[in-house]
Amino acid sequence: MKLSLCLAAHNEAANIHYPLDSCIDFVDEIVIVDGRSTDKTVEIAKSYGPKVKVYATDNLPMFHINKQKALDHATGDWLLQLDADEEVSSELAKEIVKVINMPVKKLEEYENSLPERELFLRNEDVIVKSPPNRQFRNDKETIVAFYLPRLNYFLGKFLRYGGQYPDGSIRLIRKGKAHFPCRDVHEVMAVGGATGWLQHPLLHYDSPTFGRYIARNNRYINLMVEEYKRDKKPKNIVELLNCCIVAPLAWFFGTQIRNKGILDGWQGIVFSFFSALRFPRAYIKYLLK
Question: How far from each other are the two terminal CA atoms of the chain, in whole angstroms?
Fold first, then answer.
């Protein structure tokens, strides 16, 4: 089976080595849609040799659009969609190659034998029931896409609690069987078939420094504001109280107590606190528009 690595990037010179170094030896091609980077992202990518194909385009606020373009350009039977700050471990690489070449019967047996299967399925149920994804529940036929569990790196530590693991995301798909709807920042791929899980986690170096976390958080807040505008979110005292008091408190204490985020130490507390602040920050910015 031919396997393509698909990336969308913009000014990722400091990070793009994560997917390229970890995947260059087991994928057949690497497709990068670059949003007019002004750093050395493209130069670094091309230095990895003829497997790499770079397509230039605009850097769009809805970043799923460029991710979808990368999927469209790929020619593999299977597509591995990663972000520029994600790394595939050697164990995950072997698992990916194994499952895409596995007969259907063997694959069903493999899925049923996953040690963390129940945890993964609970996480998937939460994902498909969230508002952006309700209309995209798959039809439970042949497996055509796989969720990858992710470990998110925050200020020197991979977070395992506070709802941060397994943080499932559909990343391995059969060509033509899944796509990004490109409507919501929190959406997952729409899949035309059943989904499975891989066991070994994807390593996500999203926030090695607080500055990078804030920059990413600001981008998500801007997208939340655009979604509020699109959905014509009410501007009244009830929504103000909900977004500025109820939602952030529910998020903080839910992640810290119910999801045991406190077990991740001070990093877990800081992550929950600043994640909770996105609700009032986005709503107030929306009110001032």
Answer: 50
- For strands 29-34 and 3-9, give the pairing: parallel
pTM score: 0.85
Fold of 3-206: Spore Coat Polysaccharide Biosynthesis Protein SpsA; Chain A (3.90.550)
Please give the distance of CA 160 from its chain centroid, rounded to a whole number.
Answer: 16
Q: Tens digit of pLDDT for each residue in 54-107? A: 999 998 877 889 999 999 999 999 999 999 999 999 999 999 999 999 998 898
* Total residues found in the chain within this entry: 289
Look at residue 136 in the predicted model and tell me its pLDDT. Answer: 46
| Three state DSSP letters for the chain | CCEEEEEEECCCCCCCHHHHHHHCCCCCEEEEEECCCCCCHHHHHHCCCCCEEEEECCCCCCCHHHHHHHHHHCCCCEEEEECCCEEECHHHHHHHHHHHCCCHHHHHHHHHCCCCHHHHHHHHHHHHHCHHHHHHCCCCCCEEEEEECEEEEECCEEECCCCCCCCCEEEEEECCCEECCCCCCCCCCEECCEEEECCCCEEEEEECCHHHHHHHHHHHHHHHHHHHHHHCCCCCHHHHHHHHHHHHHHHHHHHHHHCCHHHHHHHHHHHHHHHHCHHHHHHHHHHCC
- What is the chain's mean pLDDT, rounded? 91
Taking the domains of the chain in order of start, what are their residue ranges?
Answer: 3-206, 209-287
Strand-pair category, 78-82 with 169-174: antiparallel
